[in-house]
Amino acid sequence: MSAKGCKADLLCSSRAFPVYDPERSSTPPAPIQLLLAAGFLLLSSLFGTGELTMDTSRRDFLAGAVTAVGVTTAPELVHADEHDHQDLPSDVALRVKSLESLLVEKGLVDRAALDALVDMYEHKVGPRNGARVVARAWTDAAYKERLLKSGPAAIGELGYSGWQGQELQVVENTPKVHNLIVCTLCSCYPWPVLGLPPVWYKSAAYRSRVVIDPRGVLRELGTDLPADVEVRVWDSTADQRYMVLPERPAGTEGLGEEALSALVTRDAMIGVAKVIPPQTGGRG
Fold first, then answer.
1. Options 98, 101, 187, 236, the catalytic residue
2. Domain containing 156: what range?
3. Of 101, 188, 203, 261, which is the active-site residue?
4. In terms of domains, do 136 and 251 share one?
């Protein structure tokens, strides 16, 4: 994993980190920016006399903030029962709570801003963006060609761009090739199209086993591929992110873009699942 782009210079002033007001700006700062700001404040507080006020009611922001820096939280996402998860270290939990309390106390952000930030990355800047990209590729051959040629440019056509999406390569599943993405070192992930990485994606079990026995991992997750299908594992890095373009399921020829995007799941774009065709009478 390249360390390029991982070094940040902190300015010796809290004014270097502006308050995010959702009514004035539609683009909140990335979670890491907030954590850097809070980290600066935490270091400063170590030399002061005030005590930190712990706020234990902000579990959702805690989960989002910890996820943003690649630490595992509660096993409540998809496949939670099918993986060995890393537990959230208590010291990390306390640190994140302290950082949030400092952000609020120092007036850098307010609680509504934190809620808006977490909501954006979990729901708006999330798998629904990627699903729309997939649906467009399924219905527009020219767009699909551009997507496979230059992921960042193609997703930019739909308004998606930003941090961790600048170097995106889209790999296509076919009847004879199945692609699977992982980050063996940490949790590199294409945020602009898939949102925050799920807990299991960052687990040691997934990261280590998927490169050794991809078919076995897929089988455990409910995807049993025929022996003649080649499995390709793509290892994400700090300089390169991947997203899977799943196969379009049979029986969807008459569906429009919106209906197709509703079928696409995050897991299918990671490559651990296939897109399931709509059930008779609608999705169950």
1. 187
2. 127-270
3. 188
4. yes
